Amino acid sequence: RRLRFEIVLEAATAVTQKAEESAITYLNRGQVYGIQLNDKRGLDQIVTSTLSIAFHSSSHRRTAESYWKFWIGQQKQTEARAIDIGMYLDPHETGTYSNAALIK
């Protein structure tokens, strides 16, 4: 299957890994990670996408779901939004930084 986009999570993989297993990356709570979305066709356009990150192990996925349900149950609104506001390099303006808000 040929995918249009190359997606890179900017996080280091674990130093020690078993040869027969896929690379493992550990993410730390509170840490910011960059994600690159590169169009292999080289088209210069704005793309709207959805990103989902999941644990490899099903037991870890079940645990994460219970933490998520607990967290969302504590919120005033039932609609969950992940919001990150900061500076980013605008890809359409060379050397230009802009404020960005990523919602959902």
Summarize the structure.
Helices cover 15% and strands 25% of the residues. The chain has 104 residues and is an alpha+beta fold. InterPro entries: CP2, TF_CP2-like.
What does the model show?
GO terms for molecular function: DNA-binding transcription activator activity, RNA polymerase II-specific; RNA polymerase II cis-regulatory region sequence-specific DNA binding. Residues 1-104 form the Grh/CP2 DB domain. It comes from Mucor circinelloides f. lusitanicus. This is CP2 transcription factor-domain-containing protein. InterPro entries: CP2, TF_CP2-like. The protein is an alpha+beta fold and 104 residues long. It has one domain (5-103). It is 15% helix and 25% strand. It has one helix and four strands; from the N terminus they run E-E-H-E-E. The strands form two sheets. It has a two-stranded antiparallel sheet. It has a two-stranded antiparallel ribbon with strand order 3-4. Strand 3 and strand 4 (97-103) form a beta hairpin. The longest helix has 16 residues, at 58-73. The chain is extended. The relative contact order is 0.14. Mean pLDDT is 71; it is low at 95-104.
Basic shape:
extended
Count of alpha/pi helices? 1
Low-confidence stretches: 95-104
Summing up helix and strand content along with how strands pair, one would put the structural category as alpha+beta
Order of helices and strands: EEHEE
| Number of self-contained structural domains | 1
Average of per-residue pLDDT values: 71
Distance between the ends: 28 Å
Rg value? 17 Å
What's the helix and strand layout?
Layout: E1 5-10, E2 34-39, H1 58-73, E3 83-89, E4 97-103
Antiparallel strand pairs: 1-2, 3-4
